[in-house]
Amino acid sequence: MLLNLGNRSSVTSFILVGFSEYPHLQAPLFLVFLTIYTVTLLGNLGIIVVRKINPKLHTPMYFFLSHLSFLDICYSSVFTPRLLEILVVEDRSISFRGCMTQFFFGCACVITEMFMLAVMAYDRFVAVCNPLLYTVAMSPKLCALLVAETYMWGGLCFLTITHSLVQLSYCESNIINHFGCEYSSVLSVSCSDPSFSQMICFIISIATEACSLLITLASSVVIVVTIIRMPSKGGLQKAFSTCTSHLTAIGIFHGIIVLLYCVPSSKSSWLLVKVATVLFTVMIPIPNPLIYSLRNKDVKDTVRRLIYSKLHSPST
After folding, report:
1. Is 10 helix (H, G, I), strand (E, B) or coil?
2. Among 1, 164, 236, 273, which residue has the fewest nearby CB atoms (within 10 Å)?
3. Interatomic CA distance for residues 32 and 117, integer angstroms
């Protein structure tokens, strides 16, 4: 739909193409994405619930992990329900405001999660390098402050980028070759000069990515050196296991970001962009509960007790 503004016109809604070029895959994709989304919600909600009910998990690490799970739920819920909808209905339209809102919340979650992983790297650095001072150094007040700053920074960064997108004109086409309002896809349907928005996005992306990776890599290097110098094999194995889990999550997260934003800008790359976005939106939230919790005895014991209590609770 077009809204006339003098000699200019601006779209008031967009059409999401999704995976409509593959009609025979619509039903299988719906079932696959629905299953993955359900597992994502259950896994990440499980982490939050398990931490709440087990006092042994009231530690800085699981405080940050519960917020990471919350961000994974939010990010997945921004895009996946809409993806599931356009796989089964013919109406694939989304309002301009709805598109910009989806973009803002989705990207704000990405930036916030990026810094949450950096904060967790710092937490592991303190835990491994200063174990005796860990509870003092990572006080509840400091943990709350670090989490609040990550949310504020994520929202501020993408409020700026979203504002730069809103200022553009969208008057040539309202068809977005994507299943959601991803930055490059929205930019491709603009009929005004996008250079300022691209510059803003580039500066913010480079600054946040560099800052996040610098904190993570610096913490990891110090942790590795400290682990190597540990005389106790048991302590070394436990510290190495914890850090390996965190580095695995970081590697998956940043690896898909590189895949998503370092592809060639051409029509032939749109399928790759959509697949990479699916990986980021649907697949990224799944590994975190598994990576961080499967090898934790307290988590497994709490889950067993929950299952046991449900199975043996008297029926009403």
Report:
1. strand
2. 1
3. 28
* Tens-place pLDDT, residues 14-34: 888 888 777 888 888 899 889
Tell the CATH superfamily of the 14-311 domain: Rhodopsin 7-helix transmembrane proteins (1.20.1070.10)
Instruction: Give the helix ranges, DSSP H, for 2-58.
Output: 26-53
Domain limits of the chain? Answer: 14-311
Residue 245's pLDDT is what? Answer: 63
Banded pLDDT at 148 (limits 50, 70, 90) = very high
Q: In the β-sheet with 13-16, what is the strand arrangement from edge to edge?
A: 93-95, 13-16, 175-176
SS3 state at 93: strand
CA atoms in the 13 A half-sphere facing the CB of 227: 21
- Distance, CA of 236 to CA of 260 (rounded, Å): 36
Q: Tokens for 138, please give them.
A: 């990572």
